[in-house]
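Instructor's aside before we start: the two examples that follow are unrelated to each other. I chose them only because their records fit on one page, so don't look for a connection. First example below.
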Amino acid sequence: MPETPLTLWASLPEPLVTVLVILFKITLILVPLLLSVAYLTLAERKIIGWIQVRMGPNRVGFFGVAKGWAQPIADLVKMLMKEFIWPRKANRFLFVLAPIIALTAAVGAWAVIPFDDGLVLADVNAGLLYILAITSLGVYGIIIAGWASNSKYALLGAMRSAAQIIAYEIAMGFALVGVLLAAGSLNLREIVLAQQGGVIDWFWLPLFPLFVIYFISGVAETNRAPFDVAEGESEIVAGFHVEYSGMGFAVFFLAEYAAMILIAALTALMFLGGWYSPFPDTATETPMIGVLLGPGIHWLVLKTAFFLFLYLWFRATFPRYRYDQIMRLGWKVFIPVTIVWLLVVAVAVMGEVPPWFNHPL
């Protein structure tokens, strides 16, 4: 009797089956993520063109139907065909390692992101701690790239980025401590479950200052406008990745946009109820409408898309801040406000203020 795929699967050793299942789950996360990164670049150019009343990409399309939709594919082909140039006195090992570190930090955090109740690669109890640890590694890729390039402009951009990220990571960390106090857990799934209900039950309302500070700090953390002093092309000719070309530059590009999607998704998970619907009590006799209005991954995607739109809106609207303004905002405004609001949240938790802070300590 010939062996079927099912019998072949059953005959595999259990450790190998476990590894194959994990690799399959990783593929299910990475493929949509990389596609989202590619088409986020298209969305950015289209939306900013619309906001600034000018044309976005409108030439490269599939058989002339969808104007501009093949632009990310054309960009990928262009990057693959460009030469990877080595600066003469660069440290070659670190020069190659830097973009890999940046991309790994941006992609690795997705291992603990819950897309729906039970739909997560690794349901880690200390998921929030893991997120803080893995995302903080991204700055090493930027610093190493600036130093290994043996370029003054690259090193200046790296030092700017390091100072900026340290300032805003502290504010982001304090904002996440507020979420931890409110939910009583470091597990991302349990943080979302603590926000069951409608809009009024989500953490954005009692943690509103932390919510605003977390997202703005996330914009600064990813070196996006108006906080893009690390890449200030009008000041330091593209900053820390000025010496990178071809796929070296493309990997930094991927890391930046993957980090943007990550910050947007985390903001939705921790402050806007994740996969929960804003219409929890809506009853309908139509099954399709009930599925759309009920909780599900589509709500997380919509909330993430909203924050990504804000990223693009900020870039189209605000000029780049001066370096001293960025440092003043991080150290003298965001950090003091988060510390004060943490005290407010702690008092509310001790007083078991419903509906947000009535979990057992």
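Example two begins here.
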Amino acid sequence: MSDHPDHPDQQEQHGSHDLAVEEARPKIKQPPLYRVVLINDDFTPMEFVVEILESVFGMERTRATQVMLEVHTKGKGVCGVYNYEIAETKVAQVMGIAEQHQHPLLCTMEES
């Protein structure tokens, strides 16, 4: 290796003194989150909705009842907020269980 500044390795070392030592770290954008929402209907029993909230969303009975009442009185209720894949899976689970029990319960997801 040569001490001559025209050598490529030496040029990089000499030229780097003028640069900032630490580069700015790129900001990592968090992926969007999605609300999983139950939509009210006039046919699905309230107890069935509570059971869905407990089994699919892991809610305790009291919280599940609160969400069910929100669905019943306001027309819809948020079951949870998740990344896209999990929200999509939760919606599919709810729709599958509702279909098995022949209830028209509708579950959707919307960007949070």
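The chain has four helices and three strands.
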